[in-house]
Input
Amino acid sequence: WNTTTETLGSHTLAATAYDAAGLSRTSTPVVVQVVASTPGSAVYDAVLKAPRCSGPGSSCDSGTLLVGCGTRGPEPNQPNTIAGSCADGTGGTFHADESNDRIKVSTLDGSALAAGKTVRIEATVWAYSGFSSDKLDLYYTANAASPVWTFLATLSPTAAGAQVLSATYTLPTGSLQAVRARFRYGGSAIACGTGTFNDHDDLIFEVP
Output
């Protein structure tokens, strides 16, 4: 259902199933609200199972959709990785142990996202008090529907608590792209790995 073409306000939805004999059954109706969205703000994509920005723009921002790590927080729609493919760690305490709380992708020159443009990934992380063992691994893919992750960088927090870590890269060709942030305690760089305190998050965006 493409809500961008709908009027704002309440809408009633129901599904009807038909069998080979032509018999049908309709589900109980549900009421949903269509609200205005801010350009560049992600919403949770229930099909891809991660935050996604639709339409052209100069940036894509997860906002508060990634706050927490798995059951810590708890993180909304955990684990927020494409197809639910990479689980978060289950240990620790919210905003005492590691979490990636936000991802933003934006062009350096303020123009629309496009292949060949240089963009900055900004990840807002919460680092453990012993932050020297914390690392942020960043990855990107040109095809969010069937991702093959390319390693971009490993970054280190400079203090305990909330902070923004960033790196730049050039957008490849692909109409639906994504980035992944993996914030971990110890271990080594890998797009999806185990770890009691690891947090994996994806952000999906369109590149016209």
